[in-house]
Amino acid sequence: MRVLIVGGGIAGLALSKFLEKKKIDSVIIEKTKKFQSIGYVIGLWPNAGTMLKKLGVYKEIKENSAILPYFEVQSTSGKVLGKESLAKVCKGYGHVIETERDNVHKALRKINKKSDLRMGVTVKKIVQKEDQVEVLFSNKKKEVFDLVVGADGINSQIRE
């Protein structure tokens, strides 16, 4: 089986490593030519921690993180609309941590050194065949895959 993963972010890199563990070949394409720090903080709930433990990167990420005792929702003007303790979640399932997105991405890039990661490449056309997917890339190369996964963010062009 051969899988194309469109998007070299956290989801794409994690999926590639999980597929590798199952002996499934994958190609990751990323539209940017070079990874850069995006500079924002993300919250990792216990389920994310479980997945990152399975990938062997949780300890490294947790070292550069803070445990969240609560979360709050604010209006655009900064008024607190609600505040909730995370004590029950932590007690039952594990800590909720916050870290820079870059910490997670760098840890996943480290474990994907052998991956077929192609930078500065996008999908131009996808043609579904009977049991395969033919993909034309921006570099004019054409390849065939068994599956195409859109891991290219909230404004995904692939999932359209």
Please characterize this protein's 3D structure.
- The chain is of the alpha/beta class and 160 residues long.
- The chain has a single domain, classed as FAD/NAD(P)-binding domain.
- It has helices at residues 10-21, 46-55, 58-63, 87-93, 101-111, and strands at residues 2-6, 25-30, 41-44, 66-67, 70-74, 80-85, 97-100, 116-119, 123-128, 133-137, 142-145, 147-150.
- A 4-stranded parallel beta sheet has the order 8-2-1-12, with helices on one face. A 3-stranded antiparallel beta sheet has the order 3-7-4. A 3-stranded antiparallel beta sheet has the order 9-10-11, with no helix packed on it.
- The longest helix is centred in the N-terminal third of the chain and has 12 residues, at 10-21.
- The chain starts with a strand and ends in a 10-residue tail after the last strand.
- 21% of the residues are buried.
- The mean pLDDT is 94.
How do the helices and strands line up, and which of them pair or pack?
Elements: E1 2-6, H1 10-21, E2 25-30, E3 41-44, H2 46-55, H3 58-63, E4 66-67, E5 70-74, E6 80-85, H4 87-93, E7 97-100, H5 101-111, E8 116-119, E9 123-128, E10 133-137, E11 142-145, E12 147-150
Parallel strand pairs: 1-2, 1-12, 2-8
Antiparallel strand pairs: 3-7, 4-7, 5-6, 9-10, 10-11
Describe this protein with a few key phrases:
160 residues, alpha/beta, FAD/NAD(P)-binding domain, 3-stranded antiparallel beta sheet, 5 helices, elongated
Strand order in the largest sheet: 8-2-1-12
Structural class: alpha/beta
Give the CATH level 1 class. Alpha Beta
What low-confidence regions span 5 or more consecutive residues with pLDDT below 50?
none
- Total helices: the number is 5
CATH topology: FAD/NAD(P)-binding domain
